[in-house]
Design a protein that fits this description.
It comes from Reticulibacter mediterranei. InterPro entries: Fosfomycin_Res_Enzymes (IPR051332), Glyas_Bleomycin-R_OHBP_Dase (IPR029068), Glyas_Fos-R_dOase_dom (IPR004360), VOC_core (IPR037523). This protein is α/β, with parallel strands linked by helices. It contains 2 helices and 7 strands. A 4-stranded mixed β-sheet has the order 4-7-6-5. It has a 3-stranded mixed β-sheet with strand order 1-3-2, covered by helices on one side.
Length: 113
């Protein structure tokens, strides 16, 4: 079986997207990157690259997701985002205990357990 290990997102603000993904989801940016490109890593071998574009137009349903080990962890991330001024609706039960947030740079993130 093959394992997906690389995803590239086009974003309007690479440093802001990097800061967001490091702060809330624990991705690491060991190389630093720059305003035009950066690579982030998780603990399971995923490489998430971010490339700058003047504008971003993802389809409405496009998103990346971060699965959490519990509903409480989802609630904790929700509270942190809300306290930091992000416009997020509370988690709800649908296909999972989940909510979505618009990330800096122009893409959507789902947090679920």
């Amino acid at each position: 079986m093959m394992k997906l290990n690389h995803v590239n997102l086009t974003v309007t603000d690479v440093p802001a997207a990097v800061n967001f993904l490091e702060k809330y989801f624990g991705l690491r940016n060991p190389g630093g990157g720059n305003k035009g490109f950066s690579a982030l890593f998780d603990d399971d071998g995923l490489v998430l690259t971010l490339m700058k574009a003047g504008e971003v137009a993802y389809p409405k349903t496009f998103h990346i997701g971060f699965g959490q080990e519990s509903d409480e962890r989802v609630n904790e991330i929700y509270r942190r985002l809300k306290e930091d001024g992000f416009d997020v609706k509370p988690p709800q039960r649908s296909h999972a205990w989940t909510f979505y947030v618009q990330a800096p740079g122009g893409f959507t993130v789902e947090i679920m357990s």
